[in-house]
Structure formats: structure tokens, C-alpha cells
Amino acid sequence: MVLLLWSTVFLMVACGVPTFARAQELPGDLHMEVALRVLSTAPLIDGHNDLPWRIRNHEPAPMDVRAYGVEGRMGGHTDIPRLREGRVGGQFWSVYVSIEFIEEGVASRTQLEQIEIALELFREYPEHFELARTAADVERIFEEGRIASMLGMEGGHVIENSLGTLRAFYELGARYMTLTHSASLDWAGSSEGSPANGLTEFGREVVREMNRLGMLVDLSHVSDATMSDALDVTQAPVIFSHSSARTLTKHHRNVPDSILNRLPANGGLIMIAFYPPFVSEGETAQLADVADHIDYVKTLIGVDHVGLGSDFDGIPVVAEGLEDVSKYPVLIAELSRRGWAESELRKLAGENVLRVMREAESVARRLKRESPPSAVRIEDMFGR
Questions:
Q1: Is residue 13 very low, low, confident or very high in pLDDT (cuts 50, 70, 90)?
Q2: 71-80, 226-235, 329-338: the lowest-pLDDT one
Q3: Domain ranges of the chain
Q4: How far, in Å, CA of 249 to CA of 234, rounded?
Q5: pTM here?
Q6: One of 48, 58, 251, 305 is an active-site residue; which one?
Q7: Which string of b and e fits 218-253 if b means at least 16 CB within 10 Å?
Q8: What CATH number was assigned to the domain covering residues 34-378?
Q9: Is residue 342 among the annotated active site residues?
Q10: DSSP 8-state code for residue 349
Q11: Is 31 one of the catalytic residues?
Q12: Is 157 annotated as catalytic?
């Protein structure tokens, strides 16, 4: 036995393998192998990345996609080399517009500019990105080795109380809309306001029209009452594109169990954010804190209702271990280490998002057969 042991050690040293380091690293290597295998078979689809806003504000060339230089390693969280390293297969690019633009009277114009920045990114780098309008598009683009790119509008203020404007943005490629952002609207309550401020009747009509279009209803940033009201109205699954679990971290942007428990019946999905204040009660956060939130949702309501929504390039600080878009395999490996099966990891990575998209598309096909575009105006509904 001793001779066999020393023979094994001699063989490992002769091959240049540090014996004790190898013994410690092997389990981690196996879990990383699982992660990379998962991400080669299922697209990793992140729910929220603010690169277009970062490009808009990039000095010395604001709004200039080529000048930003995404093909090199940039100072933010996102660029092509790190997207590839992170095995990203699909991304909802946030085409965010600050609420301040409402006061300036240019919210819709700015929304068009943000959409154009994203579309220009795809046009400039077609070998890496393609606009995806459907779940089938996502699967095809991923199989071609590129990053399926969807547009997510962050804040319903950009439609300026007009369902016609909502429909126009859908035609340009927007596939989700976060009902509110940092302030309540005429028709929906924000998480920054009273938790009891929900949807007005016009807000309910917005949700119904989004269902008819096939645009995902995103409930990140909204009040608790708006979450509940939207779930009462919607006929399609909802998403939380970048939120976490309030039971673990008591932040108003997170989702209470009372709402999470309604997601299985709705078919919806919470995509866990990486922002430290959303995943840790302390001043900093670790990768393990993000994994804890993912584990919590899986235990509470099942693996079919959890995904990833980093908020990269929209957050000032990141969780240690999740510094940028290259780190997704590390997170998947950590969950493998915690006992997640490969089939569960594929659902987390992207299969859950694809299911939600397909179900929303199916609902839209039915509703379009049943009813024409809504002609409702908010002016007819004040006080209702």
C-alpha cells in the first residue's frame, strides 16, 4: 500500500502536477466542467444589462457605439471578450431612460435613441450579436454561436400614457417593459413610493395590451401593490428582470414571499440581481450571497421560476466573485457544488426564460385573434 501511494505521488510529480494543490482543485474543476457543459447546451440569458446607457454617457464620444470600443476590454462590466469568456448566449439589453426626461418632455425621443444605440451595437458586430424577437430566434442565434439580443424598456414613463406608443416600441423590438422605475406614474406605483400604490384601470389596460402584443410584463422596480395587481390582470407569465428575495435581504426593490408564492400559478420568473444591497444586509456582498438568493427561490417555489438578472453596467458596485460578465460560469459552478443537477442549471441559465417567452407568444397569438389593439386613452380613465 505504501509503495502504491508513493508510486502515485512520483507519477504526479513527474507529470508536473502539484500533488496537494491538485487534490484541492479537482472538485472545483469538475464543477466548472459541469458549468461549461451546461452553458454549451443551454443559452445563458441574463435579464438586465445597462450597456446601452453606458454607451450613451461615454466620454469623449457619447452615443457612439464604435468609439466605445466594445470589442476590447473596457472599464465597465461588459465587452465582447468578457461576454465570450462568460459564455453568454442571450441578453436582455436594457434601453433605460431616466425619469428626468419626462420633465424635459423628451422621454419617448430618448427611448428611440436608446433603442437605436442597441440596434447599432448589433449592426456593428453582427458576428457576435443579433436582435431576437422570439424564443425561436434566441435558440437559432445561440446555435449559430452568437449572442441573442433582446431589448428591455426600463420604466413605463417612456410610453407617455399612450398605448399607441407602447405598440410602436414593440414593433422596434422591445420585448419587455418594466412598468415603473424610480417614481410612480399616473397609472402604476413604484417601489420608491407607497407599497400600497398599485395599478389604476389604465395601468391594467397597459398590462392587457402588453399581453396582446407578447411583451413581457416586468415587475422589477414596482410597488408591492403593483406586483399584486399585475398578477391579477395578466394572462401571460410575468418576470422580475433584476430583483432578489426580500426575506433574505430586506430591501424595497426585492420581492416578498407573498408575491413569489404566486409565480408558479402564473408561470412567471424572478431573475436574481447581483447588486450587493439586494443580496446582502452588509455593506458588501459575495458570490455566495447571490447563490443563496437563487437557492432560496428554488426551495420556496421551484427551479422553474428562477433566473439571472445581473444589472451589470447599471450598478456602481458588484458582488465579490461576480465582477463582470465573464463570471457566470463561476456562479453556475458554485450551484453545481451545492448539489444542483445539470437539468436544473440549464433551466436557471436560460430554459426558464425561453419557456416564459414561448408562453407569452402563445397568449399573444390567442389575444390577437380575440381582440383588436386597445383604443383606450388615459384621459378617459382619470380617477378610475
A1: very low
A2: 71-80
A3: 34-378
A4: 27
A5: 0.91
A6: 48
A7: bbbbbbbbbbbbbbebbebbbbbbbbbbbebbebeb
A8: 3.20.20.140
A9: no
A10: I
A11: no
A12: no
